[in-house]
Amino acid sequence: MSDNMLQIWVNGRLVAAEEAAILPIDHGITVGDGVFETAEVRDGVVFARTRHHDRMDRSLAGIGLAPLDRARLDEGIDAVLEASLAAHGEHPPLQRLRYTVTGGRGPLGSGRFEAEPTYIVALQPDPGMDGPATVAVGPWRRNLHSTITGLKTTSYAENAVMLLAGSRLGASETLFATSEGDLCEGTGSNTFVVTDGVLRTPGLDRGPLAGVTRGLVLEWAREAGMDVREEQVPMADLAAADEIFITSSIRGVQPVTRLVEITESPVTAAPGLAEPEAPSAQHGVSFDRELEVGPLTQRLAALFRENAAATPDP
Questions:
Q1: Where would you find the membrane-spanning parts of this chain (predicted)?
Q2: Boundaries of domain holding 194
C-alpha cells in the first residue's frame, strides 16, 4: 500500500509516513512502554469509539501512565479522517484506525522520565478479513501472572513471533494456552467454541484481552437468548468443538474452518523454553482438523453485522 493511502498524526500535527516525527529515545520505541488500540472505520465512522477509549484508559492505568486525554486523542482521530477524505474525495468503505500512547521521552533503560506522553494516530484503508479463517495452535503459553496480562500494550514481540509461525502454515492467526494449560486467546483475537449449542469463551480471569468485539458478542448473544459461558476452556476442547470462531475489531465474527498445529519454533532460544513440545504432546489430542461454519456462528455473525450497523458507538 502506498504511503499516500496512510494518514498519520503525531502530537498535534499531520505528518508524512517517511517523516521522523517520534524521538528515537521515545520510551515506546526503546522498551515498548505504551498502549494502543485498533478500531474499525466504516465509511468514515469509527466503530465503538467510546469502548476503545475506555479500554485504552484501563491499559494506561495498568502500566502506570497518565489517564487518556480524550480531547487530544479525538483531535488526532478527526484529523486523519479529514485528511483521508481530502486525499481520496470519499471515505474508503473500510479502514483500520490505530492509535498509540507511549511514555514519551525516556532513558535508554526501563526507568521513566517525567515526560509528556506521545500520542500517535494512523489510518489506512483495509481489505478486511471476509470468509473463514485457518488458525494455528501454537505450543507457547501466556503468562497468567505477568504485570501486563490483559492489557493492550505495545510490547508485542511475543505475538509477532507466534503469528509468524502460524503464517508459515497458511494460518492468519495463532492460538495459545495459558501458563496453566487452558485456552487463552489468539495473537490479535479472542476465541469462542460452540459445543452442544453452548457458546463458550475463556473468562477474563484466564488472561485474554477484554476484546471490544468479544464484549459485544457476549452482550448481544445473551440478549438473543443464547446459552453463553465465560469460563476455563481446556485446550483439548478445540479438537472436539462443533464450531469455532474468532473475533476482533477488523475480523468481526470470523468462523474457523481449519486448525493446524505448530510443531516447530521459528526462533532459536533457550532449549525447552521457547521450543516446547508440540501442542498435541502437551494436551493429548491432535489439533489438525477441518470444521464447518456452524449455525450458531452464522447467526452471531449476522447479528453482529446488523447491530453494529445500527449502533456505531454501542
A1: none
A2: 133-310
| In a shared domain, residues 164 and 267 | yes
Q: How would you write the pLDDT of the chain (314 residues) with one tens digit per residue?
A: 455 689 999 999 999 988 878 999 999 999 999 999 999 999 999 999 999 999 999 999 999 999 999 999 999 999 999 999 999 899 999 999 999 999 999 998 998 988 999 999 999 999 988 899 999 999 989 999 999 999 999 999 989 989 999 999 999 999 999 999 999 999 999 999 999 999 999 999 999 999 999 999 999 999 999 999 999 999 999 999 999 999 999 999 999 999 999 987 655 455 555 557 888 888 989 999 999 999 999 999 999 999 999 999 99
Mark which of 83, 103, 125 sits at the end of a domain: 125
pTM: 0.94
Q: Which amino acid is at 264?
A: E
Strands (E) in 68-155, as ranges, are 94-102, 118-125, 133-142
Residue with cell 535508554: 108
119 lies in the same domain as 142: no
Q: Which of 125, 159, 182 is where one domain is finished?
A: 125
Q: How many domains does the chain have?
A: 2
Query: Which three-class secondary structure state does DSSP give residue 36?
Result: strand
Pairing of strands 133-142, 252-261: parallel
Pairing of strands 198-202, 228-231: parallel
